Structures are given as structure tokens and as C-alpha cells.
Amino acid sequence: MNDIKETLEQSKARTEKLVSEINQHIIYSWSEKEKLYVDAYFSFLRHKADLWIKPEKKAALRLQEQKIREYLAGLLGCGKETELSVMEEQIQSEASERLKELKWYKRQIAEANDQYVYHTSAVQDLSFLRASVKKENMYCNEVVDAVFGTTDFDQLILYLGRAVAGGMHVTENGHICIYPADPVAEVQGQELILKHPVYLYRTDIRYFEPVIDFRVRDGAAKLCFGYEWIAKRPAVPCEGEKIEKISFENWKKHKIYYSRGQSKGRKLIERLYHYE
């Protein structure tokens, strides 16, 4: 794992520098209108994804659509009664050149990263990774049939725990992770022995594209990239490695919790291990 960690951390440093430079260019080169048009375009993407992800939340979705409609009426100078699809077409037209620029930035991000994207699984001896069906990306701005992976080592560590526990919920920008069960069987020295082996698969980055988001908050425009990658194809070839333990050093960047079931109707969450 150490060689993977070193390679990914080097790629991450290059990518952070690149994304910072991209955002500086956006701040100083794009007009305020262009920033708002692209922000509105991504708001449309998130709304459409929400319609698929949360169809049962009809009241919240109606309120969300109303807010989008009111905002776009002011941005485009049209009436609130204008069809949302017409507004979307206008926004896409106004933002088209900058959206092409974002595609170019995605290619630059891919070039800044190493050759491989990584994926974890409880299933052994895979030669192909199969696409998830109708799954939302990390920014909830697209629902896709795709193979998902990451180039962030810290995320990989959490995903290895998820492969054991069967799920996870991450909050506080990745600093807190909650598993539905304890993924660790025992502690041996400076290593945590997993309850059962899991598998770390690597696949060629050329099959993938980076997942990005774009937001304007408090007047500041920002392209966001969280090291998630998707391959929009039925399957990608892969090579795997069995993982049976994880070092304390790699775990301690996160606050890890796991559920211990129900008590008086309230779920109890405990720290898995304390790092002093």
C-alpha cells in the first residue's frame, strides 16, 4: 500500500495545484454573468438528479423548482411562468463556451493524475469491474450507469472499511466516517486486522473522466473536484490485490464510528478507535 499511497499523494499535490490555478483563472477571466450562467447550469443538473434520486420528496422538489425558477427569471430577464425547459435551453446557450472550457479542464485534471484509478470490493478475483446502474455521483449532479473509482488514498482507506462493513456514511468533508458495523476484527501492534479480506482493484485512468461540480457561493466561483472518477461503459478491465489489514497511520486521519444497533429508538454511534 505504501507505493500506492506515495503515487496518489504526488498526483493529488499536482491536481490541487492545477485546480487552484483553474479557479484563479475563472475568478479573474470569466465575467460575473458567465459565472452565474454556469452555476445555474449545474443547479439544473443537481435538480434533475434529485428528481431521480428522491422522487418521494415531492414537496421539497416542488420548492426547489420554484426557487430555481425565480432565480432564473431574474438572471435571464424572463417571466416566472416561462417553461423550465425553455429556461434550461437559454442557460445552456449562454454558458456554452464556458462549459466547453470546463471539459478542457477535465482533460487537464486527467493528465495531471497517475495511470490508475482505484476501486474496492468484497469480491475476489475480478478481472472486470461492472458498472453500477443509475447511481448518483458524489456531487449529486448526475445519475449514471458507470464504474466508479477514486484517486484519493484517504478515501481508499475508508472504502476498504466499507467493503468489510457493507456500507458507510461520510460527513464533515470526509473527516468523519460512520460504518453500519465494526470492520475490524482485532488490533495487532500498529495494524488493524479486518474481519475478512477485501480487494483493491486498479484500472486504467484512460477509461475514466473526473467528476466535477461548479458553484458560486458568496460571490466566489469555484470548480470542485473530489477525486471521484466514472467510466461510462458496461465494464473496465482491472487487476486486484487482497487487503487483510490497514495500518493505524492510514486510519488516524479520520474519526471512525460504527453503529451498535438500537437502544430506546436511538442509534448509538461509537468511535471505533481513539488516536491520541
Task: Give an account of the 3D structure.
The chain has 276 residues and is an alpha+beta fold. The protein has one domain. It contains 6 helices and 14 strands. It has helices at residues 2-29, 32-53, 58-76, 84-112, 153-165, 248-251, and strands at residues 116-121, 128-130, 132-136, 143-150, 169-171, 176-179, 184-188, 191-204, 209-217, 220-231, 235-237, 239-247, 255-263, 266-271. Strands 1, 7, 8 and 12 form a 4-stranded antiparallel beta sheet that branches. β7 and β8 (191-204) form a beta hairpin. The longest helix is centred in the middle third of the chain and has 29 residues, at 84-112. The model has no long low-confidence stretch (mean pLDDT 91).
Entry keywords:
globular, 35% strand, 4-stranded antiparallel beta sheet, 6 helices
Radius of gyration: 21 Å
The number of domains is 1
Shape: globular
Estimated structural class? alpha+beta
Low-confidence stretches: none
For the sheet with most strands, the description reads: 4 strands, antiparallel
Helix content: 40-55%
* End-to-end separation: 24 Å
Proportion of residues in β-strands: 25-35%
Q: What is the H/E order? A: HHHHEEEEHEEEEEEEEHEE
Number of strands: 14
Summarize model confidence as the mean pLDDT.
91
What is the count of DSSP helices, taking H or I runs of 4+ residues? 6
